[in-house]
Amino acid sequence: MKVLIVEDDPLHRSYLHEAVNAALPECDTVIEAENGTVGEKLARDHKSAHIVMDLQMASRNGIEAARTIWKERPETRILFWSNYSDEAYVRGVSRIVPDGAAYGYVLKSASDERLKLALRSIFIESQCVIDREVRGLQQKSLGQTNGFTDSEYEILVDIALGLTDRAIAKRRSLSLRSVQNRLQQLYDKLDVYQTAGDDHEDGRFNLRARAVTIAFLRKLLNYSALERAEAELQEWLDGK
Amino acid sequence: MKVLIVEDDPLHRSYLHEAVNAALPECDTVIEAENGTVGEKLARDHKSAHIVMDLQMASRNGIEAARTIWKERPETRILFWSNYSDEAYVRGVSRIVPDGAAYGYVLKSASDERLKLALRSIFIESQCVIDREVRGLQQKSLGQTNGFTDSEYEILVDIALGLTDRAIAKRRSLSLRSVQNRLQQLYDKLDVYQTAGDDHEDGRFNLRARAVTIAFLRKLLNYSALERAEAELQEWLDGK
DNA sequence: CGCCGTCTTGCGTAAACCCGCAGCTTGTCG
DNA sequence: CGACAAGCTGCGGGTTTACGCAAGACGGCG
């Protein structure tokens, strides 16, 4: 059995290497990649079936890399090992995992035991392992309770990118008014009005900009999500 | 000599611990804190004069912690040890370092040698050590060439927070028109127009929102900067 | 001192945004 | 089938933005 480790940080990389050796005696080869780009290449070259992947890398982040890897070989087992459980990450991962694929999401703050257990569960038993904390987010985010619909999230991303209502309408094939409806919905859910100040007179917020800020502060958005969205946007723009 | 290490990640913490021991034989005690809050407390209790500090920690980030520590004891020597050289961080640090204080900014990607050298330079020689890469940013950001004035940065933050023109005017004691002037200046420098699409007809950007996005993508802003700005804003709001 | 560049402010306008109101289309359920 | 909720759309109008134009204010500099 071969395992591919994709991780920015040398310290974490060697820690992972050791953990893999300790948890998986049946593993005879461990390969390492220091960013997503190299990770993709190595995965392709070695036809890796077992990958441990960091999210948040400089050159090409874990979600991007995982997406192309899964596109080529959907049965690949990937364990995401991340510092954060931002909703943006969780949502990003959920969006790309193929049907029935075995994957995991473990936080770096987890204990050695948990990490090793996850390694065995995913790589040997083909079982999904999601950290409790992450799991919570996932439920909340997918269930509509207090969470955001895909369409709401979509429009959030669109205004975060800085599109006008009209542009959004064109992109999503909606009327102007519908876009604005969704925006209101979003403002509602994000409590933009509440923070907008009790006394309306003094200093109001720009709802659109404020919504993005709040989403950032709540980790609904983060740099990586923005980056991905921006790339998609450019793609769309190019495709006329 | 005592050294205080403030760092989230256990792996990095122990790495730092070793590095300090190796580089500073004259250091007899090393204390560790796993976040900014604890870091502040320990610094106070031990009257620490030598600190190695991570930026980007969950509970209270390095900039916040450093600010209060320097406020209490401005001659404290602090070495910032960070993963990133976002302009937002560099600017944040520059803003809080007291006159004549010795401090350093070294990236985690630097070699062992560089780290050890920096430790000795700062703690023994009281000399500032700024990584070349960070230095570059600093120059660019402070010199006006291609960089942003404080007033431009200020207004960038304000719209990122989601304030209206009117609110910004009130906060910064300016007229509405002046605020808008600065905004135009900002839009200019950020190249909002260029990205706004060559064909004006199709889909334009919302300049205000787009500016914030671009700033994020260029690391002029990041989560930590937003968080700090939001806290300041709340403070201002409370103070009527 | 007069000239000039930078910054501030006011006026006015076209566009974009926020949103209440109301008519339509769907899908679901009894 | 009728009722009802949820989403899309157009209309209308009040507010906010973006920005050209132009009149001061302030600070160097020859």
From TrEMBL, chains A, B:
4-aspartylphosphate: modified positions: 54
GO MF, one example: DNA binding
Xref: Pfam families: Response_reg (PF00072)
Keywords, sorted A to Z: DNA-binding, Phosphoprotein
Record-level GO BP terms: phosphorelay signal transduction system; regulation of DNA-templated transcription
Domain Response regulatory: from-to ranges: 2-123
Statement: the UniProt record of this protein carries the keyword Chaperone: no
Family matches, as SUPFAM superfamilies: C-terminal effector domain of the bipartite response regulators, CheY-like
InterPro entries listed in its UniProt record: CheY-like_superfamily, NreC/VraR/RcsB-like_REC, Sig_transdc_resp-reg_C-effctor, Sig_transdc_resp-reg_receiver, Tscrpt_reg_LuxR_C, WalR-like, WH-like_DNA-bd_sf
Descriptive protein name: Two-component system response regulator
